[in-house]
Amino acid sequence: MIDDGSSDGSSDICDEYIAKDMRFRVFHRENHGVSCARNLGLSELRGEWFTFVDADDYLLENALSTYINHITEDIDLVSAYYKKIDDKGNIIKQPTAQYAKKISFEEALLDQYDPIGESGYFNGYIWDKLFRTSVMREHNIRFNEQIHVKEDGLFIVEFICKSRRNVYLTTEAVYGYAQNESSVMNGLHKHYNPKYLTDIDACCLCYKAISEVTKDIHLLALSKNFIYYIHRAVRGHIVHKSPFNIIAWWQLFAKTIRGTSAGFLLKCYAQTITGKFTHKKT
Questions:
Q1: Higher pLDDT, 93 or 199
Q2: 168 and 153 in one domain?
Q3: Tens digits of per-residue pLDDT, 52-69?
Q4: How far apart are the C-alpha atoms of 277 and 174, rounded to whole Å?
Q5: Hey, how many other C-beta atoms are within 10 angstroms of the C-beta on 55?
Q6: C-alpha–C-alpha distance, residues 45 and 131, integer Å
Q7: Among 50, 89, 203, 250, which one is most buried in terms of CB atoms within 10 A?
Q8: Is 17 part of any domain?
């Protein structure tokens, strides 16, 4: 357990668990953000496999056994699904499709970019997955502490790209995701925050990692077009929250062009004007 400078009594609760069960370990530290806290956990973990649980959420019953049942020698990642829970404990979203299958690493990367695909779920979350520790250590995969939006997705993409092995995908729900209006991500959306621009950085780094391991035209086009998809989302954030912020506008275009090209961005804007752009376009 990582106590990242909590001030709500969580620190004492962690210490109580340590006293009750020696299998628990806790690390107390000043607040440095979620990526820094997760990296500390990655440095200290001992098991052959690891997963994540955020402070407001919880593992569903039989979550770990579900993961374990799908472990085979030829995979490094088990990817499952979640249930979204409101503040009254009601389930407001859960998997509708039912399947379990082994997929290639390229198919797993495609799955990261398809929020309305076979399962109807966006699959770029870190906490409904089980990762093989040896891959993380061998390739020194860590959370990028300069990324504040989509750091989860970047970690997953880099892990898959370094593994290059099959992934087991199941729609079995293992995680309870609590919808929280006071969460960090909701806070980023309420007012202009330059951290929101790192969403583009994450997408550019994902595209770079993918381009180094595959020549799949559809996958490369999808991951590259997704940069512009996020560019538009961030542009909308600036328009509504800080429309006269010259630095924000400069950073928006500079980051996008640096990760793609000026020609690519111009092409996307032209396709947007004519109504032909889609982040799924190949």
A1: 199
A2: yes
A3: 999 889 999 999 999 999
A4: 35
A5: 17
A6: 12
A7: 203
A8: no
Structure tokens at 209: 């990692």
The two structure tokens encoding residue 106 = 């390229």
Among residues 166, 184, 202, the one where a domain terminates is: 184
pLDDT digits (tens, 9 = 90+) for 72-103: 999 999 999 999 998 888 898 888 778 899 99
Distance CA 227, CA 204 (A): 6
199 within 8 A of 234, measured Cβ to Cβ:
yes
Which of 119, 149, 184 is the last residue in one of the domains? 184
State the Cα–Cα distance between residues 12 and 45, nearest whole angstrom.
21
Rounded Cα distance between 4 and 67, Å, is 27
Report the number of distinct structural domains present in the chain: 2
Whether residue 124 contacts residue 79, with contact meaning beta carbons closer than 8 Å, is answered with: no
Range of the domain at 88: 47-184
Q: Judge if 147 and 250 occupy the same domain.
A: no
Q: Tokens at residue 230, please?
A: 């996020």
The alpha helices in the chain, defined as continuous H runs, are: 10-20, 34-44, 63-69, 105-111, 133-138, 151-163, 184-190, 198-211, 217-241, 246-259, 262-273
Render the burial of 167-188: b for 16+ CB within 10 Å, e for the rest.
bbbbbbbbbbbeebeeeeeeeb
Spatial separation of the C-alpha atoms in residues 255 and 99, rounded to whole Å: 38
Cα separation, 260 vs 6, in Å, equals 39
Do 179 and 86 sit in the same domain of this protein? yes
Whole-number Å distance between alpha carbons of 66 and 50:
14
Residue reference for tokens 């202009």 = 192
Residue 230 burial by Cβ neighbours in a 10 Å radius (0-12, 13-18, 19+): buried
Beta-carbon contacts of residue 7 (< 8 Å; ≥ 6 apart): none
The strand pairing partners of 28, in sequence order, are 3
265: which 2 tokens?
A: 């961005």
